[in-house]
Each structure stands twice: as C-alpha cells, then as structure tokens.
Amino acid sequence: MEEQIVQDDNCFCCGRQNSRGLKLELHYPEEGKAETECTIPEYFSGWKRMTHGGFLAMLLDEVMAHSCISQAITGVTVDIQVRYLKP
After folding, report:
1. Handedness of CA 44, 41, 17, 70 (dihedral sign)
2. For residue 55, is pLDDT > 80?
3. Residue 53 in contact with residue 66, Cβ under 8 Å?
4. pLDDT for 20-49, tens place per residue?
5. 3-state secondary structure the chain
C-alpha cells in the first residue's frame, strides 16, 4: 500500500505552524516554476559570512518540490546531488 503525502503546515521551510521554521513564501510565476526569497539567519552559517551548503541544498529541494506543486503533483526527493563551484 502506497503512503499518502499529507501537507500538515509543519514543514520547516514553508509551514506556517512550525515555530522554528523559515515560513518561506513561495510564488509560482508560471506552471512548473516556483521561487522564493530567504534572508538566511547568521546562526545557519558554516563559516563567517558563508551559508552552510546543506542549508542551500535544502532550499533548492524545497523550491523544486514547489515547482511540482505548481502543477498539482506531489512527491518526495529520492536523491539529490549538488556541486558547488565556489563559496
């Protein structure tokens, strides 16, 4: 039996009910696309004035999920690989 994906508004990235979450506002400029803005708190830094790469990958994953949502598709990431060219 396939498990259902349930949106409970507690997502760390976009959930409004997560008291420690980012509460990102995502916008859909057109079907299949999503975008957001995020001011990254200093406590998510890797080194001085650098955002931790894992945090950036999480944001990328969230926006990719919302690009699916903009097409009424739900799913979860099975695999993600991010290569950073420079800090």
Report:
1. negative
2. yes
3. no
4. 999 999 999 999 999 999 988 888 887 888
5. CCCCCCCCCCCCCCCCCCCCCCCCCCECCCCCCCECCCCCCHHHECCCCCECHHHHHHHHHHHHHHHHHCCCCCCCCCCCCCCCCCC
